[in-house]
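Journal club side-thread
Mid-discussion, someone asked how the predicted structure for our own chain would compare to the paper's figures. Pasting it here so we can look after the session.
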Amino acid sequence: MVRILANGDIVQDDDPRVRQSTQNRGTSSRPVRRRPFCGASPQDAARPGERSLLSDINQQLVNMGFLTWNLGNQVVEPVMSILLLLLLMMVGVRGLLLVGLIYVVSHLSQR
């Protein structure tokens, strides 16, 4: 097998540079700070002092006058409303219904 080094070189597994890079990675004392991704659970994203890009955009849209609305027991944020409108323009009503069906099926399969 081959490995790809940080500088982009493709080398064999037994190359000394591969062993050196794996040893350096294990001795790194730099703390790793990870931000939650879009699919993170609300508990992961609710760390004090951390804000996501979507929450910042939502806050700016609310400040500009966009409203949040409820769809059943789900709160639809302004950025999701804009994304739904863009999706509607790109794929039409049938595509939007297909996306809604996929969401419902995936939501029910998680239970």
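Post-session note: The first helix runs from residue 16 to 26.
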